[in-house]
Design goal:
- The structure holds two protein chains of two kinds.
- By secondary structure, chain A is mostly helical.
- Chain A folds into two domains: 85 residues, Rna Polymerase Sigma Factor, Chain: A (Orthogonal Bundle), CATH 1.10.1740; 97 residues, Arc Repressor Mutant, subunit A.
- In chain A, 62% of the residues lie in helices and 0% in strands.
- Chain A contains eight helices and no strands.
- In chain A, helix 2 packs across helix 3, helix 3 packs across helix 4 and helix 4 runs parallel beside helix 7.
- The longest helix of chain A is centred in the C-terminal third of the chain and has 23 residues.
- The relative contact order of chain A is 0.11.
- By secondary structure, chain B is mainly alpha-helical.
- In chain B, 68% of the residues lie in helices and 0% in strands.
- Chain B has five helices and no strands.
- The radius of gyration of chain B is 24 Å and the shape is elongated.
- At the A-B interface, helix 2, helix 3, helix 5, helix 6 and helix 8 of A face helix 1, helix 2, helix 4 and helix 5 of B.
Chain lengths: 198, 87
């Protein structure tokens, strides 16, 4: 176990409320966003987060530090959310891997027959982050579930790929394929919004 | 992610499929060289890669940091229960 985590885990096991709330504030927003890729409503996502923290407390004595504490916590979130999604009778397509969504990264009509760009790729106009946010939010929400989970963890939350693979139980290759599809679609949505060729 | 034939240069339509592998550093040395040789000579793909980086940067701005007071209160109560049960 990493030294900083070892101290935190020790404090939790000793019943230190401040250590717990520090962890809650650090991770709950991201846990909630991940939960929303499994369940339908923000209210249910809040319940998943709550239930996950209870699971963290109940399981903390068994945490051995084989993965980071964060990864361990998010695996609990994914499990709780998956169970909840099944109960919600929402389909959870574990088969949403690379194969069933074979869109090209860029609309094929944007290329000439020889594979070169048909029209110049123009720089985007400057945009406020808040303005882009709405476009990206909508584009991410429209992604297939597994793509959405991967882009959430990699790009929204900035995780390294090995931790994403651990939590979502993906191979490195599948993870990268899903991420690339997701990013390509978000880029296309931004391009529709920001590009000169609107 | 895509098997590239060895001798031929990359075309733009192929390059756009490789950007995440390129940014993650998972292209083979040879494919990386082909990728870089292409963007060095292609302003459109240079611009495309720039848009891709900008997309990643902007997506990172979706990150949130607030926990609602209600959620915090509920978790404090859960924590108190858990602590009592352990004692």
């Amino acid at each position: 176990m990493r030294a900083d985590e070892s101290a935190l885990v020790g404090a939790l096991r000793a019943g230190d409320e401040r250590a717990f709330m520090q962890l809650v504030r650090e991770h709950s927003p991201g846990m909630r966003r991940l939960a929303l890729t499994y369940v339908r409503t923000p209210a249910v996502a809040d319940e998943v987060v709550q239930e996950s923290w209870v699971g963290v407390l109940r399981g903390i004595d068994r945490f051995e530090g084989r993965s980071s504490l964060k990864t361990w916590i998010y695996r609990i979130v994914a499990n709780v959310a998956r169970t909840r999604a099944v109960r919600e009778a929402r389909s959870v397509p574990f088969s949403t891997l690379a194969g069933d969504d074979a869109d090209a990264s860029v609309d094929p009509s944007e290329f000439l027959a020889d594979g070169r760009w048909a029209t110049p790729v123009e720089p985007w106009q400057q945009v406020l982050d808040t303005e882009a946010r709405a476009v990206i939010d909508a584009a991410v929400a429209a992604l297939p579930e597994q793509q959405r989970r991967v882009i959430e963890l990699r790009d929204v939350q900035g995780w390294p790929s090995d931790e994403v693979c651990n939590v979502l139980e993906l191979t490195e290759t599948n993870q990268r394929v899903l991420l690339h599809r997701a990013r390509s679609k978000v880029r296309a949505a931004l391009d529709d919004y920001l590009g000169d060729h609107r | 992610m895509i098997a590239l034939r060895r001798q031929r240069k990359l075309v733009c339509r192929e390059l756009v499929e490789l950007v995440t592998d390129y940014l993650d550093g998972t292209l083979s040395r040879r494919d990386r060289a082909r990728f870089e040789a292409h963007i060095a000579a292609c302003t459109n793909c240079t611009q495309y890669v720039e848009q891709f980086r900008e997309t990643i940067r902007l997506t990172g701005a979706l990150r949130e940091s607030d926990v609602s007071p209600e959620a915090a209160e509920a978790l404090l109560a859960e924590f108190a229960d858990w602590k009592r049960d352990r004692a």
